Amino acid sequence: MSMDRRQFLKFSGIASILGFGATVADATNLITGKQLLPPQVDKNKETLTAKRWAMVVDMSKFKTDEDFQKTITACHSIHNVPDFRKPDGAPDRKFEVKWIWKSTYEKAFPGMESQYQSEHVKDMPFMLLCNHCTNPACVRVCPTKATYKLPDGITMQDMHRCIGCRFCMAACPYGARSFNWVDPRRAANLDPAKGGKVNPEYPTRTKGVVEKCTFCTERLAVGKRPACVETAPAGALLFGDLEDPNSEVRKIVTNKLTIRRKPELGTGPAIYYLIGGGDHA
Amino acid sequence: MLEKALEGSKKYWAWVFFLGIFALSGTYWYIRQFNEGLGLTGMHRDVSWGLYIGQFTFLVGVAASAVMLVIPYYLHDFKKFGKIVILGEFLAISAVTMCILFIFVDMGQPMRIMNVMLHPTPGSVMFWDSVVLSGYLFINALVGWVTLGADKKGVPPPKWIKPFIYLSIPWAISIHTVTAFLYSGVPGRHFWLTAVMAARFLASAFAGGPALLIILALIVRKVSKFDAGKDVIQAISRIVAYAMFANVFLLGLEFFTAFYSGIPGHQHPFVYLYKGLDGHSELVTLMWTSSIFAAVSLIMLWVPKIRRNEGLLALACIMLFSSLWIDKGFGLIIGGFVPNPFEEVNPYWPTYPETMITIGVWAIGFIVLTFLYKIAISVREQTAGVEIEH
Amino acid sequence: MKIYNGGPIFLGILVFLAIALFPFYNNFGKVNAKPEPKVDTPAIQEYEKANGKKECIESKEWMRGEHMQILNQWRDSVVRDYNRTYKSNSHPNAAPFNMSLQSGCMKCHSNKKKFCDECHNYLSVKPYCWDCHIQPEEKEEVKS
Fold this sequence. Notes:
Number of strands of chain B: 0
CATH class of chain B: Mainly Alpha
Order of helices and strands of chain C: HHHHEEHHH
Helix content of chain C: 40-55%
CATH topology of chain B: Formate dehydrogenase/DMSO reductase fold
Largest sheet of chain B: none
Low-confidence stretches of chain C: none
Structural class of chain C: mainly alpha
CATH superfamily of chain B: Formate dehydrogenase/DMSO reductase domain
Strand content of chain B: under 5%
Number of helices of chain C: 7
Oligomer: heterotrimer
């Protein structure tokens, strides 16, 4: 933290000297920098910690469409994800924002389908979300470190810093990132004038920034598991520390057949899809 | 010298006024986009870059192409380019200005643009792109201004400017290489993941930029006493021909790799662009127009008889420029996003506001170009006939 | 005495004055009541009852000048380092505070209109906090 701040001050100092200018707040920060208090900050005691958070998805546990919907709704309503609708009530794909969503085998694993697979197999449902890659392309390309890796493996997004260049969206091979093309509060589900309701415990986003799944860092910080994990059918979404040999996710990844999306790209996705399912560890 | 831009004929002011109208309408639509968000454009979740970034990419090439005049003149002492090299440098300034404006109008949070400098990220190509572009703008403004100022006084330019001139050569290559790296360095976009991207960018830049310069030189000759010279234009047209050949060749390589390797993911964007995919063929006409223009203009430039006729040469240059504009300013971006990572085809087409903003930026660029050329031409007209040793 | 090019010169001076004096005549005649932020929300009164005094994370004077700095620090610290609790510097005996604008600051200062807006409007600063963060629900003040 103190390092960060020193670096920050150094950079903003250099930037100001070079005449790049700075935001008013940053300039004030520079001038009054010496008066800033030494940090007295800490984590919550109940914070859930890990060396490498990962998820195992067991699709066999999702039985009904309701299982999907309640999981998605839990995430999207907690995080104030806008749900844009056309006048006829159909989803408006133009402004679409999503953190976790239901897709199909064919779409989640393009190129894996084969000629004689039935439509039923090709359309088998898959739950998709940010892969929280070990070597994420989105983090590599971000020009402001607005998206970055947390020490516990989560790929995080700082909405305060994002400049909305959308390089991360071009870089992500998983389509996990959404841009706020308009003010998200215009969506019916977040606009009180249209009968919408926001979760007062979590912010919305502003227009012009990119967002995605955060593995619920705000819940981990208060000792809760991610919202999707809590609401999905028992055992459908397993969340744990991949570096911990005794964790459930580690045992499954070690002993069972799991697949990941596009592993050949070298991004190191941390979402593992369990094949077979049933009576696993 | 600036005052030269403020005195001109009625026609000159009519032209500036004409551009000003488009600049203003672009500004109006930009203010609306600023308030309402990029939802005003045709972009969406799957095609998250569009016309703006396409124009940016294309114009970086136009900016870099000044080097095709600087190299012969300063490195090979090709004296004939002495007059026109300033037009190349000033074209670069106007092009970089447009690049910066296109980046700016594409940003979701333009007020935070300084975050790029406040949180410098050497691992990001975008960071380097902003560094090299602003550097290039600075170098060209400095070199153009100092050499023109010296010309005005009838003295050779000062010695200290030489290192900047030489520096501008690798710097020009760097701006377009780094811009290509924006695309060729991301995983999962088959259309962009190609090692020849930077080479192709440079080839198309060295064809398109000088082609535009030929058109501009012919216009300048019409409206002023400034004549770049017939043989100079011929020399540039040969550069255009070679560079365009290289560009078409490199594009051919892309087709070979995609279709001979047989990898479906590599083929899909080409199929979408040139034939249509999943019932979507929005860009097919445009892409074939580009291909036909490329082939025809290349032949026209290749045959000496046609090339020496300046009317036909102008036509060839216009076709070539349009071909590259479609290919690089539009097809290249869309092909990277269609199909999307789920192999769905979600087409993109610019909206009216988006188009007006784009035209507005071009208009601003041309106003800058008009002013700069007016200054250069006025100085040249005064010193007409006086050959200056650089 | 004759002034050459008098017309353009005076026109230029006029334009300059018009721009330079804009803040003055723009605000002329507007009522600028001195802001008086209130710290008497139910949450604060409850805190006072439980702890015997009103106290913010730092002293009132310091907060008045530096709250934007602390918010900037907090946001980086929370989003990037998982930190969530802040130990006060000026009154070390106070329990750690929750580092959160929405679920920290505004839980006590639930009177945003009176506490934030009045000053910000007076000084004509427009922080963009509330583009994203949800402001506390406030009942319209009843004039008595």
